[in-house]
Amino acid sequence: MDPAAPLGSSERPVRVAIIGAGPAGFFTAEALLRRSAPEFDVDLFERLPTPFGLVRAGVAPDHQQIKSVHKTFEKTAAHHRFRYLGNVAVGRDVSAEELAAHYDQVVYAIGSAGDRRLGIAGEELAGSHSASAFVGWYNAHPDFVEFPFDLSHERAVVVGIGNVALDIARVLLRSPDELAKTDIGTHALEALRASRVREVVLLARRGPAEAAFDLRELRDIAALPGVRVQLDLAQLEAAEPGLAELEPAARKNVEAMLAMARAPRDPDAPAAERTLRLEFLCSPVELLSDGHAHVRGVLVERNQLERAADGSVRAIGIGNFLELEAGLVFRSVGYLGVPLPGVPFDAKRGVLANRDGRIVDGERVVPGLYSVGWCRRGATGVIGTNKADAHAVAEKMVEDVAALARLASEAPGAPGATPAARTHAAVDALLASRDVRVTTFADWSALDAVEIATGRGRGKIREKFTSVGQMMNHLLRSVRDDDDGA
Ligand code: NAP
After folding, report:
1. Nearest CA to ligand 1 atom 1
2. What burial class does residue 312 get, using C-beta atoms within 10 Å of its C-beta: 0-12 exposed, 13-18 middle, 19+ buried?
3. What range defines the domain where residue 270 resides?
4. How far is the CA of 168 from the centre of ligand 1 (A)?
5. Is 189 in the pocket of ligand 1 (CB under 6 A)?
6. Element (H, E) at 136
């Protein structure tokens, strides 16, 4: 690197740290590295040794097609100006301030690690769980594999009717034999084999026209052998007169549900072993205890809809209550970002405070700091949504290079300047001084090969490592074996 060369030239590329190796992080790296002017040099930091964020630990194991986007990320990782720094937690191993000192631009792509609460009594009872914990558990995320999910109850209730709720329902209802071929954690597969859950009830506070799921997700469940989808025809017919005014996706949802509810039963079809029940227009008001601090059911209030002047539709309780027995309750009501020390946070929206991806402190744009993906816009959209988001934020970063160069010429320590700290060697030395064992993309490739080989031996797509300790031990053993062999 030539410190005297202009910022963004091949002799002095813009040094970028991206925090978080999920889709938003990788798509941002891709958008920056494909440019020839200005040129960027990307260090991608990830808390775990394993990359790909929700592609690995969020997408359900029976949705392998969606996971294939990792091939695009691998191409980005092969770029000569890309480095992967796994097993480095920002906020623990290195601070936001230190990153700002070592890079010209820092992009946070840390997702939404928190989950929304219901804010009702009984939420803390045993048997009441967040969707994110269950999703992490079946996907063998090291933070969640030890979670105690008791599947010995016949009915599970999922609060919320978005795509995550449908993922949870499908995993609970699908035959474990089918899941056995996927990359589901073996601990979860064994628990699902022993599961006694026969009915999953999705609780939607609003009506069929406001359901947040994508139709293909409901169709996936309806197509499962031995699974029946139970809908209330009267509730659906109440939404029918308004069909023409709905957005296309909502209209298709309602039409498909109406068709499902009206379809005549085949008298020769075998009785369904498991049921998905969709309950619209009800809100949980309390999780009921069995007297031993375990949930035994949900107290639900019926709602009616109210349309506001701005066209939004709200659910209003009508004082009509019912009890739904259930030993297992998931709240699947969306995710929220969590603050990161040193980065302004917008607590109201649950995102890093930003204006179109540029981090702001009050009204002031913080030069060289960005956010992308869920931590920028909130937990909305599918994986592909992050591509457009990443490209838009990368454009802002490109626009800002000239201003950064100006700032650098005025103040030598400012982003865009070239102090000694702004090199690979300085970052590596800082992490080494803290005994952080940074893992590379080659390390991930080695772990990947082990997971695939172990999985193949068990008739699965892969068998994931379930703890960071296991991963690091494996990598250490490989280094020792190499040294012994040399
Ligand atoms: P979501 O799509 O925002 O759905 C949240 C659900 O929770 C909505 O039905 C919402 O109802 C309900 N809700 C919120 N607060 C509630 C409350 N206090 N009481 C009762 N219900 C409440 O969130 P998500 O399912 O967690 O998904 C997050 C994002 O990931 C979405 O963009 C989703 O599409 C995406 N995703 C995609 C896939 C896929 O493509 N296969 C899979 C998983 C996730 P209201 O509408 O009434 O607010």
Report:
1. 162
2. exposed
3. 117-333
4. 12
5. no
6. helix 131-138
The finding on whether 205 has its CB within 6 A of some atom of ligand 1 is yes
pLDDT higher than threshold 70 for residue 435: yes
Mutate which of 62, 67, 161, 164 for ligand 1 pocket (most atoms within 8 A of beta carbon) = 164
334 lines ligand 1 (CB under 6 A): yes
For residues 134 and 262, state if they share a domain: yes
Q: What is the CATH number of the domain that holds 35?
A: 3.40.50.720
* pTM, entire model: 0.95
pLDDT digits (tens, 9 = 90+) for 163-207: 999 999 999 999 999 999 999 999 999 999 999 999 999 999 999
306 and 365 housed in the same domain: no
Residue 211 lies in a domain: yes
Structure tokens at 228: 């029946």
Report how far residue 199's alpha carbon sits from residue 14's, in angstroms, rounded to the nearest whole number: 54
Q: Backbone phi, then psi, for 404, in 5-degree steps?
A: -65, -40
- Say whether both 134 and 201 belong to one domain: yes
Q: Give the number of other Cβ atoms within 10 Å of residue 324's Cβ.
A: 18
Separation of CA 367 and ligand 1 centre (Å):
33
Q: Is residue 8 within 8 Å of 16, Cβ to Cβ?
A: no
- Answer whether 3 contacts ligand 1 (Cβ < 6 A): no
Same domain, yes or no, for 191 and 244? yes
Instruction: Look at residues 418, 439, 460 and tell me which one is the last residue of a structural domain.
Output: 439
For residue 46, being part of any structural domain is answered with yes
From the number of C-beta atoms within 10 Å of its C-beta (0-12, 13-18, 19+), residue 399 rates as: exposed
Instruction: Examine residue 62 and state whether it is found in any structural domain, yes or no.
Output: yes
- Confidence band, pLDDT 50/70/90 cuts, at residue 359: very high
How many distinct structural domains can be found in the chain?
Answer: 2
Ligand 1 atom 13: the closest Cα is on which residue?
A: 333
- CA 310 to ligand 1 center in whole angstroms: 21
Residues 276 and 132 in one domain: yes
- The percentage of residues in the chain with a pLDDT greater than 70, rounded to a whole number, is 98
- One-letter amino acid identity for 200? V
Of 135, 168, 205, 299, the one to substitute when testing ligand 1's pocket (max ligand atoms within 8 A of C-beta) is 205
- Residue 124: give its domain's CATH number: 3.50.50.60
Q: 10 Å Cβ neighbour count for 431?
A: 19
* pLDDT for residue 417: 64
Do 407 and 313 have their domain in common?
no
DSSP string for 85-120: EBS--BTTTB-HHHHHHH-SEEEE-----EE-----
